[in-house]
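Q&A log
Question type: sequence-to-structure
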Amino acid sequence: MKTLALALALMLAVPAAAHGQSRQPPTHDEAVAALAGKDLEARRQAAAWLGEIGTPADLPAMMRTLRDPDEVVRSLAESSIWQVWSRSGDAKVDALFAVGVEQMSHGDAPGAIQTFTKIIQARPDFAEGWNKRATIYFLTGEYEKSLRDCDEVVKRNPQHWGVLSGYGQIYLRLGQPEQALAYFQRALQVNPNLAQVEAMIEELKQVLIEKRKGTI
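Response status: OK
Response body:
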């Protein structure tokens, strides 16, 4: 199973910047209203633009857009949700967060752990600080530490599909496929667009069927 690639895609996920649109950007209130409208181009524009101007208060509406009938809207909404999650509301903390992400991208695990620990100490309510440190602990094989940080994430953001998938990855590594399956299913319930998670669920179901048959 390609667990490392999936973990990087879901736990590490660095939000993509919104692409340019053909229309004048809407105001905040216009963007939120457009998410539930019938105008496809307006929904696409709003889903992208809220990544730049959205706030935590907008997340329920943005999460609903993950079930939009248009694939582009869903993809833009997913990216924008990551952007909102990745803003702490404190400019100094956000600057430090960017440093930590850069350290992660260069494989500097000790430096990134130190940076995200500083963020956690400064803003313990900022779920994404915990999530990034959980990711590093996972990648360095410190699964119990990663699980503890995952617990802190879901206390603050129970709909964080990245960390729910992260639990699944950890439990796979710990040889607990039933637990892994449960968390992957929870992640997919929150965000039905996770194709890799969906594939992992089907694979795990087959593994557990064969296990019960005593064939593996």
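Response note: The mean pLDDT is 90.
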